[in-house]
Design brief:
With 402 residues, the chain is α/β, with parallel strands linked by helices. The protein is built from 15 helices and 13 strands. Helix 1 packs antiparallel against helix 2. Bound molecules: iron/sulfur cluster. Iron/sulfur cluster (SF4) binds next to loops.
């Protein structure tokens, strides 16, 4: 049954709760749901219902198209002046022996090590330290662009930008314009966590607050540039905090249109100060993807990081509103593995990503950072793809050789 028929069938269900039916009707007609309806989805929307709504929107926007990219990460340091309670990655400066601090040369060598690889994006994000200041990052971005102009630099979050601009006594608008001139092309979505101060002050106090995070993205969008947004869910927040978070993003997106992708980030509880908090279930993860797709009607894409939630859950998520599963990674990020993700050395070849998507019946597309198509894999076959599908001939037993 196709996505529209499933939704029509659901709307004919006489046992469906009236509010959930109103929400489903709005989704069918492409109308926006309210904050109260967002909370109702979290409180009463069961998995099957949410999947029908989210998949209807996903297929209306993208059909079966499912995006991935070829990327690698640079993580300059895992030392950080902040002390976010959920962070499994950062080693405070006093735990320096467990940390790393990459030099400019080391990071450029990492870029050069991909010279013969068809990667399209470098994703740079890590801890916050005083020596990685505005001048350092401007030099880094311009050196990368000089070396490989076609490599898209997606780097740093408002957490870093707020810190380095403040130290340099530069306002956000000027700072972001200077970063753009230095070679920055996109901003990833991190550092958003949960915006509401009731939660943010408990888990991530001191770093940029919600208004500052949103303002830096707004200044970036005003320059005609794009960025992503995340939400760290499944810890001490309540459902209405998640809706409040998405509402703030939806409002900014109405104003600027600069966000490309929303990425829900599952809280992982290994080796951090919130290890006593249980992790969300896979069912809750899928419900959350679906509600994100339904609520954020002005975001083009919803992404699931396969490295964070596992390959199998990423496949399932494609039926719950997700249309992007991120990239090849090449074991260049430790953010997910240090937090307890199943993938301890995250890396997938292009073929593995294509097959992962194809095995769900969807249509794999390699994109660049701005969702321009690099290769449409709908009808592409790999050199030896059918080798194991050739008819095999077995030696028949000889019953009577006389
Ligand atoms: S989440 Fe980011 S800002 Fe917070 S402690 Fe970890 S590395 Fe630092």
């Amino acid at each position: 049954m196709d996505a529209e028929k499933k939704l029509t069938f659901l709307l004919e269900n006489k046992n469906l709760d009236e509010e959930l039916k109103t929400i489903a009707t709005k989704v069918y007609h492409g109308q926006r749901i309210s904050e109260a309806e967002g909370v109702a989805l979290y409180e009463r929307g069961e998995l099957g219902y949410l999947g029908v709504l989210a998949n209807f929107i996903r297929e209306r926007l993208h059909g079966d198209k499912t995006y991935f990219n070829r990327n690698f990460h640079i993580e300059p340091t895992n030392l950080c002046v902040y002390d976010c309670k959920f962070c499994s990655y950062s080693r405070l400066i006093k735990q320096r022996e467990d940390g790393w601090e990459a030099t400019m040369d080391e990071m450029l060598s990492q870029v050069k090590s991909y010279d013969n690889e068809p990667v399209t994006e470098v994703h740079i994000v890590g801890g916050v330290l005083p020596q990685y200041n505005m001048a350092f990052y401007m030099d880094l971005f311009s050196a990368i662009k000089r070396h490989r102009p076609s490599l898209h630099v997606k780097a740093l979050t408002p957490v870093e930008y707020h810190y380095i601009f403040k130290k340099a006594k530069v306002d956000y608008a000027t700072g972001m314009a200077m970063m753009k001139d230095a070679g920055l092309e996109s901003m990833p979505g991190g550092g958003a966590e949960i915006f509401h101060p009731e939660i943010r002050e408990q888990i991530a106090k001191d770093k940029c607050n919600a208004e500052q995070w949103l303002q830096i993205h707004e200044e970036w969008h005003k320059l005609g540039m794009h960025s992503n947004a995340t939400m760290l869910y499944g810890h001490i927040e309540q459902y209405w905090h998640r809706v409040d978070h998405m509402e703030r993003l939806r409002q900014l997106q109405d104003k600027t249109g600069g966000f490309q992708t929303f990425i829900p980030l599952k809280f992982r509880n290994k080796d951090n100060q919130m290890s006593y908090v249980a992790e969300s279930t896979v069912v809750e993860d899928l419900r959350n993807y679906a509600i994100s797709r339904i609520y954020l009607d002005n975001f083009p894409h919803i992404k699931a990081y396969w490295a964070m939630i596992s390959r199998q859950t990423a496949q399932l998520a494609l039926g719950f509103g997700v249309n992007d599963i991120d990239g090849t990674l090449d074991d260049t990020t430790k953010i997910y593995s240090m937090a307890g993700a199943e993938e301890q050395h995250p890396a997938m070849t292009t073929r593995e990503l294509v097959e992962l998507i194809r095995n769900t019946g969807r249509h794999p597309i390699e994109r660049d950072t701005l969702y321009r198509v690099i290769t449409d894999y709908k009808d592409v076959t790999f050199a030896d793809e059918h080798a194991d599908k050739q008819p095999k001939y077995y030696q028949l037993p000889v019953l009577n050789d006389k």
